[in-house]
Design a protein that fits this description.
Two copies of one chain form a homodimer. Chain A is α+β, with helices and mostly antiparallel strands. Helices cover about 35% and strands about 25% of the residues of chain A. Chain A has helices at about 1-5, 15-25, 45-65, 75-80, 85-90, 115-125, 170-190, 240-245, 265-275, 305-315, 330-340, 350-355, 375-400, 410-420, 430-440; strands at about 30-35, 40, 65-70, 75, 95-100, 105-110, 135-145, 160-170, 200, 215-220, 225-235, 245-250, 255, 260-265, 295, 320-325, 345-350, 355-360, 370, 405, 420-425, 445-450, 470-475. Chains A and B meet through strand 2, helix 3, strand 3, strand 4 and strand 5 of A and strand 2, helix 3, strand 3, strand 4 and strand 5 of B.
């Protein structure tokens, strides 16, 4: 009873999912609000997740030949304006620096909302010959977009991300890289964050400002809403034309390069919360859990208990492990472990020590496993692996249960009236139909998945012959 | 001959040290200029050094209990103004955001030049009780200072750094942390970057805006100029008073916290260049060399040569190693290895293979060592370790040779007229003397070193009784 009072309750997700999300973000100490509207503090517990995301994603990038670099955070207005579609897409939501020190600037500078224009300006300088290609660069930085509505991790005026920018000799090379990086994202989401994705192409209406084609990995949150979790863009030679990025090919002819860009952001942390969390708080996949195992001593003042706990910590040195030896009660410590989403809790008290064993408790299923000390390390390794795999399976099953099919507008209307999830529907590729669905049902086309199906022969909206299957959903 | 032409010469450091520096920075492909005045591109070869600095310094921070976090890049003007000395120090050199999207902001925001004010605003929220102390946070980010004169790595309008900010219960705890982090910096500079430092305290004139005490690690560059390489500040409770950061102590009384901050920047890369570089280019200490060993095959088209080179690469998998199998000549490859400062080059050709050996060549001394294949790994490890140690020793010897003593103004004048280096001199602690020396000789007090000496009984300037020994120098 006393323990229950100690840990303040969070709103249940069934009652109010948005409030549940906000409560978890605050109570798990991931985020704090600041005096700067729309900008957050990412607290140590949140930033440690981002560090694990960075390390693993960065290694995957480097394995494909990508190198990191750093470009300035400021873009002169004239540079931003060089590519017409791009500036139209971003100008309405950038922050402008007009004064440096005590003097007004001759030309105002925007704080980068994304860095295509800066990379183009750089590539123009460093690319001369086919020998200089491909250029495969990435940077980890923060960007600014002056959003009106903001939510922790999901949408903020400043956020952290990585942005990859590549330049290639041919259109084929650029397309290959665009798809390669989309596959890296899908691999990362599924095998590190335990989040299943639908891979596909955005419609022209939803593609990135200045892109020929935008590819996306779409994930379904626990409440049935979709989250665009990473995008990879093929720019063709549009930016190269606008910026004059040319190279001399082997045949001695001047040609324009073909470019790509691809990005993932701190919204991934939001995705982890909304896919895996439950009414006790955060549930972290072991691969991105800053603490994977917390050892909680029971009756820790009894002789030998704390010594044993620290001995067990040493036995588990292959994992990110800590002992909670604070003077809080075990019940409070259990609740805290659950709120923070630590994958495994190991309980050990005087009776366990006498019997030569302890108890492992999984955060996701709450399954308890009795383990003898000599098999502790092996069992922790096995359980973390199993949990990582089963979290993905559970999320996939949830997505399948919340994926529907609509063959005409009546079906589409009734599904979105009653349910929240992905809806698959056929499309004639006419933007008028896409516009109509978006306006009437307040949903957006998520993507044209690579795994196409023929649900019917006709467009869900106009009844004319269908060309593509599209995923629809309400999105964050 | 042909090889010599292939590699463009760099200006010699004896002829023009500033031009030598700029040439190395460009030719070693560390930096590129941009359309944004005073902002640079850190190219992959430069950024990879920064990544190694980050990894090793971050691990040292974490070993002292520090955690990473991320605070916004924008500071509302009213927040910046809360601490009087601090705003006076920074307001003249900040960039101001006045528009967000299409609308003017109600309150303008400065792009952080440093984040004391934001951390104070945050600590005010999260600190209530003595149980919440200490707070030991750090962030890796970029900051902006609107400098008029800029130089790659040494001074730019935007630069990358880490800034640690801590809050403590007592003045003693804060002072202890300030010195602890200064010692971490000194350890890092000496044992990772192979740069010897003088540790000491800044005079009141040179201390950080808002600090009670600023401590510094000062290094001497090859040209005899000083570089402030890291600073650690004790703020006392000044910021806590201005921001109202209070906690309830064990005795149930409300008290103000005591704070510190400490930072190191990408100027460390400039220090590495200027301490270790030579007329063939960069010389990187093994611990921060992105490539530690380059294997250069001789007559690589002969059967078995490339196979052997890659076999050797596999033997050296404990190091950061690559094979240069491009179609450039060996001479070109040697020059490139030297320009980029790769610590070891391993040469292997058909005759070596026949004899079961290869040649290791050290970048710093150019010493060549014949090594049989079976001792290759051990010899590479040994040589890298030795090089790391000897680079520090050489830099220390250079600093000793360029450290002078002045007992009166005539001596001080004549030393600075003829030489560039550190000059040790006694001081009465009166700022008038410090001002006079600075104005007359265009040098600044670097620090009052922890290792004090009594060079004479009187102030170098006024002849009154001396209280402190001070290091003076021309600084970057």
């Amino acid at each position: 009873m006393a323990d229950k009072k100690l840990v303040e309750a969070i709103t249940s997700m069934e009652e109010d999912f948005a409030q549940w999300y906000t409560d978890v973000v605050k109570k798990a100490e991931l985020i704090d609000y600041t005096s700067v509207k729309g900008c957050m503090v990412i607290k140590p517990a949140g930033y440690a997740i981002w560090e694990l995301i960075q390390q693993q994603l960065d290694a995957m990038f480097k394995a494909t030949g990508v190198q990191n670099a750093y470009l300035p955070m400021f873009i002169p207005e004239s540079l931003l304006q060089k590519e017409k579609d791009h500036v139209e897409g971003f100008a309405p939501e950038v922050a402008w620096v007009t004064h440096g020190g005590l003097a007004p600037l001759q030309e105002r500078l925007c704080v980068r909302p994304t860095s295509e224009t800066l990379f183009c300006d750089y590539y123009k300088n460093v690319i001369q010959s086919y020998r200089d290609l491909p250029q495969l660069l990435n940077q980890w930085c923060s960007v600014v977009r002056w959003e009106k509505e903001t939510r922790p991790f999901l949408r903020s005026r400043e956020f952290l991300w990585q942005e990859g920018h590549t330049a290639h000799a041919t259109a084929e090379d650029a397309e290959e890289r665009t798809i390669l990086m989309l596959n890296v994202y899908a691999d990362f989401l599924e095998n590190v964050l335990a989040i299943p994705v639908v891979k596909g192409r955005k419609t022209d209406k939803e593609k990135f400002a200045g892109a020929v084609a935008t590819y996306t990995v779409e994930a379904l949150m626990h409440d049935g809403k979709a989250l665009q979790s990473g995008t990879s863009h093929n720019f063709g030679d549009g930016f190269a034309q606008a910026f004059g990025i040319q190279y001399t090919d082997k045949d001695n002819k001047l040609k324009h390069v073909h470019q790509t860009s691809w990005g993932m952001t701190t919204r991934l942390i939001g995705a982890v919360i909304m896919v895996h969390g439950d009414n006790s708080g955060l549930v972290l996949p072991p691969k991105v859990a800053p603490t994977q195992v917390v050892i909680i001593p029971i009756q820790q003042k009894k002789e030998g208990v704390l010594d044993k706990a620290f001995e067990m910590k040493d036995m588990l040195s292959n994992f990110r492990v800590k002992v909670d030896d604070t003077d809080k009660s075990p019940g409070w410590k259990f609740s805290e472990q659950e709120m923070r989403g630590i994958p495994l809790r190991v309980e050990v008290g005087p009776k366990d020590i006498e019997a030569g064993k302890c108890v492992i408790c999984r955060r996701d299923t709450r399954e308890k496993i009795e383990v003898s000390f000599d098999e502790l390390e092996a069992k922790v390794a096995e359980t973390l692996d199993k949990m990582q795999v089963e979290m993905l399976e559970r999320a996939r099953a949830h997505r399948e249960e919340h994926t529907y099919v609509a063959k005409d507008m009546d079906e589409l209307r009734s599904i979105f009236a009653e349910k929240t999830g992905f809806v698959k529907a056929m499309w004639c590729e006419d933007q008028a139909c896409e516009d109509q669905i978006k306006e009437e049902l307040s949903v957006t086309s998520r993507c044209m998945p690579f795994e196409q199906e023929t649900l019917s022969e006709t467009c869900v909206c106009c009844g004319k012959p269908a060309k593509k299957m599209v995923y629809w959903g309400k999105a964050y």
